[in-house]
Fold this protein.
Amino acid sequence: MRTPLNDPAPCEDPLRLDRQLCFQFYAASNLIGRLYAPVLARLNLTYSQYLVMLVLWEEDGQNVGAIGKRLHLDTGTLTPLLKRMETLGHLVRQRDREDERRVRISLTASGKALREEALHVPEIMTRGQDLEELDGLRRTLAGVVEALKGGRPRPDRA
């Protein structure tokens, strides 16, 4: 015998995976990474490395904290990624002369040259898509990110 407490109807069950907003973002993020992988493999970059490069191509010479803030990554996640990228020859990590606690990240000549090779990535990834629709989706998601940056879920809204 089915009761609402122990077995809600599938469309009403608040714990169904498909009803979780967080899962939709998680799934979309994973799928985007998989779609980018073969395109970025030609550049010898992972998706995470590509995002770091995008930040540095916008403004070279940033510190780790600024890059982490822009990508919403903590330094514990970002530091090993940057070390691998340094090994690949895309960037160099140097202690800030004014504040030795900070590490500055600068592109190498190879990292700067890689930008030209990456110019085709956005076009490949959006080919055949409605660009106005994609721009609207990007703006919506940017709004979601801004809202989420605002803080934790409030107990009175749990």
Summary: The first strand starts at residue 62 and ends at 63. The radius of gyration is 20 Å. Helices lie at 21-41, 47-58, 64-71, 75-88, 109-118, 121-126, 131-149. Residues 21-123 form a domain with the Arc Repressor Mutant, subunit A fold (CATH 1.10.10.10).
